[in-house]
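Please produce the structure of this protein holding 3-isopropylmalic acid.
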Amino acid sequence: MANPSLLILAGDGIGPEVMDQVKRVIAWFGDKRDLSFDVSEDLVGGAAYDAHGTPLHDDTMARALEVDAVLLGAVGGPKYDDLDFSVKPERGLLRLRKEMDLFSNLRPAQCFDALADFSSLKKDIVAGLDIMIVRELTSGVYFGEPRGIFEEGNERVGINTQRYTEGEIDRVARSAFELARRRSSKVCSMEKANVMESGILWREVVQKVRDADYPDIELSHMYADNGAMQLVRAPKQFDVILTDNLFGDILSDCAAMLTGSLGMLPSASLGAPTGDGPPRALYEPVHGSAPDIAGQGKANPIACILSFAMALRYSFDQGEEATRVETAIEKVLADGARTADLMGEDGGTPVTTTQMGDAILAAL
Amino acid sequence: MANPSLLILAGDGIGPEVMDQVKRVIAWFGDKRDLSFDVSEDLVGGAAYDAHGTPLHDDTMARALEVDAVLLGAVGGPKYDDLDFSVKPERGLLRLRKEMDLFSNLRPAQCFDALADFSSLKKDIVAGLDIMIVRELTSGVYFGEPRGIFEEGNERVGINTQRYTEGEIDRVARSAFELARRRSSKVCSMEKANVMESGILWREVVQKVRDADYPDIELSHMYADNGAMQLVRAPKQFDVILTDNLFGDILSDCAAMLTGSLGMLPSASLGAPTGDGPPRALYEPVHGSAPDIAGQGKANPIACILSFAMALRYSFDQGEEATRVETAIEKVLADGARTADLMGEDGGTPVTTTQMGDAILAAL
Ligand SMILES: CC(C)[C@H](C(=O)O)[C@@H](O)C(=O)O
Ligand SMILES: CC(C)[C@H](C(=O)O)[C@@H](O)C(=O)O
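Below is the modeled complex.
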């Protein structure tokens, strides 16, 4: 049987250096666990723009549609701030999401015991926190038409369209309910049904799917503004949160920051199952390209390595091997290894990106 | 000279009981400070729906356009959850905002020294916090057309439109810059210009207004998802935050919850100056109608009383009298009076809504 295939798109800023550590972990699986991948690499974001004048070359797009999973580092940086909207680094990522049809974005917000002190929240509020946000990723205001800046009378008007079909809501709701069954069977869906008709349809369809096919799931609905409040007030009341593309963008970042350690959080973006194969999938850390520290060996590679662990679990049915990676990381943290982002005020010497990779390989 | 006129719309849930305490404060100003108001009262939200089948009667709307300021309690409750979208309690409030053209919504997120322990955040992160969020309130996705649920092929689609004209962005930016001049002259504007064209126009116009007429203002721009993160991570980096209607809804609730005491936070919604007079204005607490505790004398009237203080400052040019109210409230808190929402885990006996009113009047 052919090896499963992986496309690595390291991207911009700290993307390449954290991805270097992921490659070492991938190599380790080939050597020690007889689990080899066919790895290819390509450019995305600013790096692709510099080489080809586009944030995602068509050949790269085609390759992403062929492989079993894509691993992405990060995109963007101040160098590209003044580029035209259509070729900004982010467009490369958004094109991947859309053309791979990755409608279900899983963003865990998990607070690691060894790091609970890093949160700006009180320890008892966040210790043990383990939320999974399921964010719709291929529709809503990110992709709705009409969109653009238009002349109207003697002024300009900026327009975007929030748009959800029943089918789009239905499929992402199912993915949240499936996931919830493997956790605590509790889902909270968030929208602004008190203000937006798209939110009314969202609420109705989510409820209908639950009633028809997931009666075992405890489903609640919350307005997104209250959701933001409740995340800050008492985040442990949540298990799975289901929400749309734009609310998901904001609420998942809010939830991520509750944990205090952004450098630790992975994400998975999944499509529909393709025939017998795994679903199309893209894995990436939640953190951005951090241009201010890029190239200095300061970046924390853990979020990116945990993204690979998610790939093992969701794309390659290797849940045990995923747990192996996660356990190794917990051990390394418990032993006290810290990259610069994880240093407390009391100081100590941070480890470099490569040293963190060394420690994780040793723990494996 | 005629007394300034006030329209009180107490609304639903705890609205009427917190407003009762405001009325006592208003009466105190007439008795003791020779500052009398012509007060009229009417219905809004579910209360108006129960009486008239609409969440805002046309006569009430007309009256709101005549008076110098409107004080609103709260709208909504589970009783009205199944009403049609067009007559939900919220529509009454949204109609007031729109027809009074209250484009600038000021939402202070202030952490009271005596209450810093109530925050879910660490004390040093929030003690002394004093942010002012300026939220655009009459446009964006709340009001953009087309909107609704439509048939498309054999499924339904929910549509809302995010829409901002240059003029709408310009005027709310000016209101934020004016306000910033009376504070620290620092404004951070938030949008998703990396994903939404309406955000690109927003960023461009805000920058242009700053460069042309407010060169003394230090202006920065931030993506709204990062804004949510930064609010949780280190809120004191902000002074004035300027943002649109939907992001403002979520971010201001997030910011409010950082302070730990929602029952304390007022808001002002201001229109353009009308001739020589003050701008059209509506003042309301940030908290909702809290149907679970309504009618039990447990509600905290402070946010609503502080909303009246904002009216003194922004509508009636009585900044000193506003400060008088604020100082009285600080004193009452320092003396230890606490409604149920402000009770710590260590217990003690909470004061009732009326007792809190008594204490504030005594302190005045
Ligand atoms: C980079 C940007 C386009 C993206 C988004 O807005 O979705 C990012 O914020 C994210 O959450 O993955
Ligand atoms: C009640 C509701 C319509 C309103 C809004 O979404 O604006 C509320 O959440 C607010 O922030 O004032």
